[in-house]
Amino acid sequence: MEAAKKLLELNKVSVGFPHRGGMRPVTENVSFSLHDGEILGIVGESGSGKSVSMLAVMGLLSGNGKVMDGSIRFYNKEQPEEYTELNKLLKGELRQICGNEISMIFQEPMTSLNPVMTIGAQVEEMLTLHSTLPREKHKEEVLSMLSEVGLSEVEKLYDKYPHQLSGGMRQRVMIAMAMILRPKLLIADEPTTALDVTIQAKILKLLKKLQTEYGTSIVLISHDLGVIRSICSRTVVMCEGRIVEQGKVEDIFERPQEEYTKRLLAAALGKGEIIEKREIDYQLAPVVKAENYSVFYAEKPKNAQQLGSTLAERLKSIFAGKIRREVVRGVSFEVYPGEIVGIVGESGCGKSTLIKGLAGLNPLTEGMLTMEAKHPQMVFQDPYGSLNPSKTIGWLLTEPLRLHSIGTKEEQRQQVLEMLKKVGLSEEYYDRYPSTLSGGQRQRIAIAMAIMLKQKLILLDEPVSALDVTVQEQILILLLSLRKEYDLSYIFISHDMNVIHRICDRVMVMYHGEIVESGKTEEIFERPQHEYTRKLLKARL
Amino acid sequence: MRYYIKKIVSLIMVLFLVILLTFLAFQVIPGDGALAKLGVDATEEAIEALRESLGLNKSIPARFVDYFKGILHGDFGISYQYDQPVAELVAARMPATLGLALISILLIVVVSLPLGLLCSKKENGTVDNIITLLTQTLMAVPAFFLGILITLIFGLTLRWFMPGRYVAPAEDFGAFLRYMIFPATAIAVPKIAMLVKFLKTSVIRELKLDYVRTARSKGNTDRAVLWKHVLKNALIPVITFMGMVIADVLAGSIVIEQVFNLPGLGRLLVVAIGNRDYPVVQAIVIYIASVVLIINFIVDLLYQKVDPRIRLQ
After folding, report:
1. How far is residue B152 from each of residues B143, B157, B165, B182, B187, measured CA to CA in Å?
2. B94-311 has which fold?
3. Are A177 and B218 in contact (CB < 8 Å)?
4. Domain assignments of chain B as residue spans, ordered by start
5. Which of A48-52, A251-255, A410-414, B56-60 has the lowest average pLDDT?
6. CB–CB of A106 and B210 under 8 A?
7. Could you tell me which CATH class the domain A1-101+187-207+216-267 is placed in?
8. Distances from the Cα of A512 to the Cαs of A64, A156, A421, A532, in angstroms?
């Protein structure tokens, strides 16, 4: 597409947010352009300014953020030779373009749709706002768009609410909403980050298809280099509010010029090189041994069948409330001393439920479970939500010791200070609050907290999924060094096959509550047996 | 459907419990109805005879059965003090209390919703600051004091109404309204202040959520974002709060009825307590408890209507 028309051009754009009376810039001199019909990737870690730049295009900056300098030029529909300066437009004029010619989809399909409006009404709103189509044709148009994005039973879907849909379906609804007016430009802000890998690939395929069919240009914002490589033709690499490098995807990926890009690539696309190999002695007694182990959820019966047939039975079940649903179905496995066992599987397959059962957080279990560790500790995915924001780091870390009455106050303090050092944080963090820490630092605290009790088994539920790639790398290395230091075993849940490959000794694949395959990591990766495992590995970009 | 059955059955059960507990509570209080009616100077025989005729000598369970049967027929017993059926006494006082409550509720809803939205439109703007200051102040003013002020200003100085001259709605509805608007305002103002603050907080919290950004990205105007997307979501927590306020107002404003000399349930209750007129007190307690329960029931149903996420559970 040489000499294709420029659709969007950012020229030395700086975006700032109010800070202590003045404006503090978060991006500086961001310049790039997007050609008609192209898919451009913007890649960078969190805080690099990639989303902010595109939100500025649509005038969606939150909290009084402003374009301080530079210009954002967008092709003008009426006069193809002219450009509209989006950042100079009045609010009302910009609204004519938003949704109509430029539309956007977001990272969190769970929260980006209005929870109290039906799917149909939300998609239709686009038509009401911008289209000249007569009202009675609206529904028909919405339904056809919904099927176009790969949704089925659209008639039923039309009257459903967002919470009744899965994450993948919601993102498809978002795409249908964004594409129904055939905009010239679609901005996709981390559209697949919150989704399972197998669904990720499908959503990307859909975006690609829409781009070819309608000639819509796409700006794809992602921290995931794999995603960028799979569908973008050109890419912009951003770091700390500046553009580090831009060019064709092949060039950037094959011959990165800048140090930062190289680092990013090494961390993300190292094809999951094994960080450190360790021989596990399988003759030793396992730290965990589960046999025919099941975990249940108590839930309310949903359909009439579960309620029973006679009126009396139904009345009874209305008040009796809950029935047990088997989420993990009779799994058997062992974890040996010093071993890291990975569990992979899509969301809802029961992997988190399984380790919650092991940790004693879910008492509804059945089957044999022998465990050396009395209180296996957990590390959770979201380092922002899982630390109490009103307590200091020191308080949080001494809590396990206090609960088990280990040592005097002074001894506890010493232990915590030592642990802080072990996880790579200095002593001054003792008196700080979680809100002053970055995601990676918080995850270090969460790991420290899990190790405080010196239990041999640590359960990690997607511990690095919420972190940037370079930070991921550091946390993985930390986990490995702590394993050596304290002789720990880990059960490591992840949806990211690369991460699994890098640190796990063995892998178990879960599917619909069962372990469908397990074995040494290399074996699974080289000779996957189960259909689902193959799909997972293929979805790895 | 299941949800409704469950809710209705539990509502009925709780109402029954309320009646039972109220009944039992009045059995514990020393001194019975016969004594209260005849006074301490009456002869032992006279009291005993009255006990017999009132059925006070029966066992407690038997008396409860009688009482409960009566309630099912709308019979709450005979007032010791007035020698009239309690139901009639209460019914006669209803118009003043209900009228006052309904006018107050109307005022609360009509005034607080727009004000709350107005505040949230521009946080820390001039309008918001003024309204916030006003709400902070008015929240702290007790309703009876406001009542006295209103009587003083609008009644005695401006002469917009005659303090103490209540007109029954059956007599002259217009005059009734013109009088009632003043006590209703006294009740409504502190509640409005609370609701405005609550609604504002709720709207501002919603405005920060992702779906609002989506709505903006579609090209909605700020007004459309607020009315079409945010309002319904923001009202979800407000409904509960509103329910509490409404139940509170409906249950009667004893003090305000005193200040404005309204022949309502509150006044009846105060007099009945003073005279140990237990059947009347009991009936009013049951009324208040039922109002709270029924309003809560309605709130639950409304919740369901507004928030589709609750329907499935």
Report:
1. 14, 6, 14, 11, 16
2. MetI-like fold (1.10.3720)
3. yes
4. 14-72, 94-311
5. B56-60
6. yes
7. alpha beta
8. 46, 26, 41, 11
